[in-house]
Design brief:
144 residues, mainly alpha, 4 helices, 39% helix
Length: 144
């Protein structure tokens, strides 16, 4: 798979600090995209891709909002170039969604009964022996 095209505008200062991690995650993403999916359910083949997408977005979120290690210009560049998911990061800033795994888990139109995904239910409300696994992204519990 070809590399993701970046804009012709050069990246802002500080890009060289995060570039190795972003490139490593991109390589993992390409590896999982080409991985054979025989023996897996149709949705299970996408779970590693969702996980890596979450990792990239969480990495940039932590660098900018938690550790204050990157500049606003670099953060906005990453959002503009679609390196991180702006909508997912916007949800992480809201109370109750700090550990959200993906946006599909809170979309009620994707479920049979018009509710959130099972991974959004707190673990203390579920049976102890019940194994929770999101059908959308493979999450095992992202409620706060």
């Amino acid at each position: 798979m070809p590399k993701v095209r970046r804009s012709k505008k050069p990246p802002p200062d500080g890009w060289e600090l995060i570039e190795p991690t972003i490139e490593e995650l991109d390589a993992k993403m390409r590896e999982h995209e080409t991985e054979p999916h025989e023996g897996k359910r149709k949705v299970e083949a996408l779970w590693p891709i969702f996980k890596i997408h979450h990792q990239k977005s969480r990495y940039l979120y932590d660098l900018y909002y938690k550790r204050k290690a990157i500049t606003k210009e670099l953060y906005e560049y990453c959002i503009r170039e679609k390196i991180a998911d702006a909508n997912l990061i916007a949800k992480w800033k809201k109370d109750g969604y700090e550990r959200l795994c993906c946006l599909r888990c809170i979309q009620v139109r994707d479920t049979n009964f018009g509710t959130n995904c099972i991974c959004r239910v707190p673990r203390n409300k579920l049976d102890k022996i019940q194994i929770v696994e999101c059908i959308h992204c493979g999450c095992r519990g992202c409620s706060g």
